[in-house]
Design a protein that fits this description.
It is a single chain. The protein is mainly alpha-helical and 182 residues long. The chain is built from eight helices and four strands, in the order H-H-H-H-H-E-E-H-H-H-E-E. A hairpin with a 5-residue loop joins strand 1 and strand 2. Helix 1 runs antiparallel to helix 2 and helix 7 crosses helix 8. The radius of gyration is 26 Å and the shape is rod-shaped.
Length: 182
């Protein structure tokens, strides 16, 4: 709130300064109103995200529900660009202590990537991207082979022909054979 004494001083000001001070007061009032509106929007946004993505927050990446900025903007009654600006360059700390970008709540592929990592971690022999597509389909995720390759690369997982599985003391350990660059 802009100091009310300033408004009172405007009425006592000389005519030559009154108009300028009124403009300044109106601009300051508008700024305060915009900041308050922004704070209210952020609170509403975070409350919605926490309610909607509760399982993700408590249990991890695999439980992230795909969500779009357009859907949230409709629910909150604001423009989609408002949601984009509200999320941009902002982070939130989860109960686990992990700090993530707010934009993570809108990731469409995180749960698929998490399941993909689980499948690869449990594979007895390295599966090709085509076989990974089928394994994902069995778990309810329909993705193309090229998408699997993209997600695999995003997770830093090598192609099947470069992955090897070794069994030591009943534990599966996966490692990559990487030849040094010349």
């Amino acid at each position: 709130l802009v100091n009310p004494d300033f408004k009172k001083a405007i009425s006592d000001a000389p005519a030559i300064k009154r108009e300028k001070w009124e403009q300044d007061f109106n601009r300051a009032s508008l700024l305060v109103k915009c900041l308050q509106q922004r704070a209210v929007t952020m609170v509403r946004l975070v409350q919605y995200l926490v309610d909607f993505q509760k399982q993700f927050i408590l249990k991890g990446d695999k439980f992230l529900i795909p969500l779009t900025r357009a859907k949230v903007s409709t629910i909150l009654g604001v423009h989609e660009s408002t949601i984009s600006r509200a999320v941009a360059k902002k982070t939130i700390q989860l109960p686990s202590g992990k700090i993530i970008p707010l934009s993570t709540f809108f990731s469409r592929n995180m749960s698929v990537r998490c399941v993909l990592k689980e499948i690869i971690a449990q594979e007895e022999k390295p599966l090709s991207d085509s076989k990974l597509v089928l394994a994902l389909k069995e778990q309810g995720y329909t993705v193309a082979r090229r998408t699997v390759a993209k997600y695999r690369m995003m997770e830093g997982i090598l192609p099947a022909h470069l992955r090897k599985t070794v069994t030591n003391d009943q534990q599966r350990t996966q490692f990559a054979v990487i030849t040094p660059a010349k």
